[in-house]
Amino acid sequence: MLKKIFDFIRNKKNIWLGISKGKHLEDRLEEELRKNNFIPLRLNILTDKKQWLILKKEILQKNNNKDIINNFPSFTYNTYFRHPYGSQNYPDFLIFTNNSIIPIELKTSRKNNIKPMWNSNLPKSNCIYIFASFGKKDITFFKGNDVIEEKIKLKLLNFFVEIKKIEKKFIDELESNERGWKLYVRTAFEQNKSLLSINGKLNYFLHPWRKEIENRVCEWLKNITKN
Predict the structure, then answer these.
(1) Can you tell me the mean pLDDT for 143-155?
(2) What is the mean pLDDT of residues 183-191?
(3) Structure-model confidence comparison of residues 80 and 65, the more confident one
(4) Which distant-in-sequence residues (6+ apart) come within 8 Å of 117 by Cβ?
(5) Burial category of 23 from C-beta neighbours within 10 Å (exposed 0-12, middle 13-18, buried 19 and up)
(6) Eight-class DSSP state of 79
(7) What span, in angstroms and rounded, lies between the C-alpha atoms of 118 and 144?
């Protein structure tokens, strides 16, 4: 059922991009989830709160590259959470199938952006991202592990681990002052042409692997949602 939604995104992109003012892409996705017999799941019906906290840790782990197994009771099958950890936090949706739990994150641009803004979060390997540029009139989707190599991801993450150690040492040694001045290091990531490989391309819509990457998402969904 979930694969059907992504086939729809790819084949009827104009419907997804023709969103009326005030209606968000998240609303559109939720509408399609309901049409495909997914129902909202409420936290208050999950009796094992410890299991929910374990899932949260697994979902938010920065370098988790494994598919997430649905070990919750069968009443969670074909359900979803919207904003499970708050409206400003990752992910936008958690989809529960009979076998798996799938994070989905939506990235949108009203301008002519050709790539998503990542800010302080790198793409997570086991998440499906939907990226829509209303300026470019295009929409695509991909798994996190298809847009960032694992070795590069680990290097970027480890950089800030080391920087945070330096930050803490510096603040611990900083003298007190009248206005309480200190510093903080903000984690931020971007994709930049200065580090593109010879055949690399920043544009998510014109990337030569776009079709293949979308196909991988659909094939992956087909395989992990089998009965």
Answers:
(1) 95
(2) 94
(3) 80
(4) 107, 109, 190
(5) exposed
(6) E
(7) 12
What is the pTM for the complete model shown?
A: 0.93
CA gap 188, 61 in Å, rounded: 17
Look over the chain and give the mean of its residue pLDDT values, rounded to a whole number: 91
* Cβ atoms of 186 and 120 closer than 8 Å: yes
Q: pLDDT digit string (tens) for 160-173?
A: 999 999 999 999 99
* C-alpha to C-alpha distances, 29 to 9, 80, 143, nearest whole angstrom: 10, 11, 17
Question: Which SS3 state, helix, strand or coil, does residue 101 take?
Answer: strand
What average pLDDT does range 146-170 have in this prediction?
Answer: 95
State the Cα–Cα distance between residues 201 and 190, nearest whole angstrom: 14
Cross-strand pairs, 139: 132
- Using CA atoms, how far residue 99 sits from 46, 68, 130, 148, in Å, is 17, 9, 22, 26
